[in-house]
User: What shape does this take?
Amino acid sequence: MNFVIIGGDAAGMSAASRAKRNKPELNVTVLEKTMDVSYSACGMPYNIADPARDMEDLVVRGAEVFRKKQGIDLLTGRTARRVDPKNKTVSGTCVDGSGFEYPYDKLLIATGARAMIPNLPGFERPGVMVLKNLEEGRRIKAHIRTHEVKKAVIIGMGYIGLEMCEAFRELGIDVDMVKSRETFLPWMDQKLADAVESELKANQVGLYPGRRIHSIEAEGKKKLQVVCEDLVLSADMVLVAAGVLPNSEIAAAAGLKLGAGNAVSVDETLLSSDPDIYAAGDCADAVHVVSEKKVWIPLALRANRAGWAVADNVCGKAAALKGIAGTAVFKTFNMEVARTGLDVHEALDAGFDAAETVIESRSRAHAHPGSSAILVQLIGDKASGRLLGARMVGKEGVAHRINALAVALHVKMTVEEFSQSDLAYAPPFSPVWDPMLTAANQLLKQL
Amino acid sequence: MNFVIIGGDAAGMSAASRAKRNKPELNVTVLEKTMDVSYSACGMPYNIADPARDMEDLVVRGAEVFRKKQGIDLLTGRTARRVDPKNKTVSGTCVDGSGFEYPYDKLLIATGARAMIPNLPGFERPGVMVLKNLEEGRRIKAHIRTHEVKKAVIIGMGYIGLEMCEAFRELGIDVDMVKSRETFLPWMDQKLADAVESELKANQVGLYPGRRIHSIEAEGKKKLQVVCEDLVLSADMVLVAAGVLPNSEIAAAAGLKLGAGNAVSVDETLLSSDPDIYAAGDCADAVHVVSEKKVWIPLALRANRAGWAVADNVCGKAAALKGIAGTAVFKTFNMEVARTGLDVHEALDAGFDAAETVIESRSRAHAHPGSSAILVQLIGDKASGRLLGARMVGKEGVAHRINALAVALHVKMTVEEFSQSDLAYAPPFSPVWDPMLTAANQLLKQL
Assistant: This one.
């Protein structure tokens, strides 16, 4: 049986490896358009921040290991261009321009996502970069090495932008961040967003939300200008981190149903609308465990997990994924920012009678040295008492705390039940009442 | 209505404050035998470690605040000696030797726990100390300040001993730890215990488990000797941290039923076997959410929570606590050690068909600088697939991770369900597969 996979990153290679482990006799072919497979994309900002590190150290497992040790037919430099569901083939072009066509019995589309580039003048100029795949990471690192980059402008204020902001500052590069939308971090309460904003400002980052961007222009021979409605920002380089788009065009062209965010619509088994084609990773949608609606939230863990589930299903070991909570964390300078579940707007949109609370607590016990503020926002449903989502910001202990709330969302816990959880306490790590419990107790008063 | 509370620490003062908030017209009387109320007992090792800190900074809220701002009749220096359930009175002695007697309508016994002192010769010698209440903390700090303490011996290897071990070393004091029981940390897998042991040894701590202790003798005029079966340890002071006992004698003498660990047996509403007497905090037992059996695991969060629940029940707002997971964390030097739920022996004793796994993962993503080992032990039930308990050791990210597993225990999640949790990932905080998920995936193979 031929199991063909388009895309050799998290979902694709997870599926390929597991399929081979499940069934060594399976023919597993991976078609990857770049020369890179199985690397830690999320690690790129940290790698870029350190000139002494080799970009290649982000490669988790080299192509040769997959080929020789695992017997996967891993083909890099092959861009899949067309899926023919009727004849069950994938065709496309190799790096040298020649064509290829492979027959499949089961196909996995794991084409990932790409950085969104606004359709505005000047975004094609040299020095305007995006960061999604390893090649783009190498390009940014090379640009910084070979150019005198004193100032970068980041378009967008999402987590990649905020991580890259820290990376630039570590390299001594000045940073301005700009975006069209008015609100800095719209998916969390203003108080939490303000704490992150303060951290950025303390690190001399210029923040310009609510500035409509017109174009990127040349400034002299070497520099660039990001031209906004009422603002011009000079830069030695521009990073466009304005969001991502699913690479679902090949699926759409093959007649597959698209779902949330124009990602490939899949069921719990990761099957698309074609009975022999799966989709997984950043190009596929998922069910949200809170709203039970389809969402597109491309994240690494889901990609890996979905890759495994596809492999199991292809090999006859039925696997179904219940859904995602949209749990995510990022660090910017010394601030940890975490989220899981719905924000207030999403909760209202999903039909919940949403209530929310925001509390400020401390990262360590009363009088314990080194303590810092932790802000917790919790969202609950007045009708059912259910916990719907959480946001958290602080200098320590935020990244892992959010997981307790994520687990609670998976099991549809009420705020009252969560408030009764027996959480860990020791003075270096928490007040007796963990900030999450303080928030839950507070939210209860509104439910 | 008279609501009388014996004991003015976590459970007692939580109950007193909340009762007054619930019902300002209630007469709330607290009888506290020491002069201290509402302090962070768990913070004492960290305070002792820092000669510049005042012991009093551990007091969360002073007695005067409770008295004047909250209107609580807070009586310190009153040792309750007898409860008469028939006539509904509490009697005892004041610090000046005079007697007192108070009538109650509802009584809360919140007498806490005390350090266990082995009934062996020499434990009464000057320089042999325990650490449970603030007065004992002051005594230790004064002893270190006024004596030339170069070497301490700690009897016991529980979390207070291990926290104090770090405190002594920070003060430049050499430490030996000794106990009769053979196994260093019997409630976790050997690999995890070994990691903690390595951390202690790297900090020049002498560890002597499995040494039966005979006596404490004088060595010359100033020093002490801890005399064991085949070992003599010299010391300038000895800390006895060999476990704690519930202060349940007054309850037993009043005819109340004792439960697990000889603590006062209480139901979900914290009511004892007498319909007008509650017990809460370290002197009361609780239901374990995993085994559903009564246990005695004295911890600060439960004490606070139980105090609140008693106040609500006394004030006619029905409150029931489902139970505890025994979630706890401590730090010793740079090692975080966390637990929740049952260990393998407890699981077998509780009738589960226990299986376990131990995995080693990393605290940060592939190739991310500053990463360190995280060891996770998970215990599951082969019959039901349920998660039963977890143990974790590592230099970062352990203290808060354990809470995700604690929540899972509260809702009786299966290992399979937990393995599907959407946990947070970013390179500074975790591999893509959080160590907890790696452990769950591994344990699943045995279930």
